[in-house]
Amino acid sequence: MNFNHTLKDGVKYSGPYWNEKEINAGVNCLKNGKWLSAGENVARFERQFSRKFQFKSSVMVNSGSSANLAMLAGLKRFFDWSDDTEIIVSPVGFPTTIAPIYQNKIKPIFADIESETLNFNLVDIVDKITDETRAIFLSPVLGNPPDMDYLQDILIRFDLRLILDNCDSLGSKWDGEFLSKYAVASSASFYPAHHITTGEGGMISCYNEELDSL
Tens digit of pLDDT for each residue in 73-94? Predict the structure, then answer.
């Protein structure tokens, strides 16, 4: 095998990809933008992002971690969840999926995972549901979702909300629908290692415009 030839012709797993267009756009923002932080380009990106993934509303923040934190704070207020509220979450994933639950004084309940998929075991989720459970916080591993039909049955049966940490699964679908269609709200990350990047940045998106005002 010609290793150099393989590297040259292969598809890279990750790495930076930009050219003069990105550099010129960045310089133009600094020279002509009305705001140094979130300005007209961010507002345009929020609208385009919503159209692309069929959201009613999207709000950009500084990171996917902050998106999870603000999203949970907004949901807790919107649904009037108490500090005793429980949210079922997987123990496998980034700390920034779990830490915002603690930061919002909500109790995380860990459901075991399947060794084959690393997603949480849906049967174990049912065993973990109590009178205090209000939501399931889904974070698909590398964009691979669990059985969303079965998960939807659980949500309906126990009157629970689905929250989606969509940072690793932006664009993933189940039965032709974006995973976010199953969730009351979802987060996204634009860190360089993710699907699209703004250098840093995150997004909170939902289909209920009332959540946008929180």
Answer: 999 999 999 998 999 999 888 8
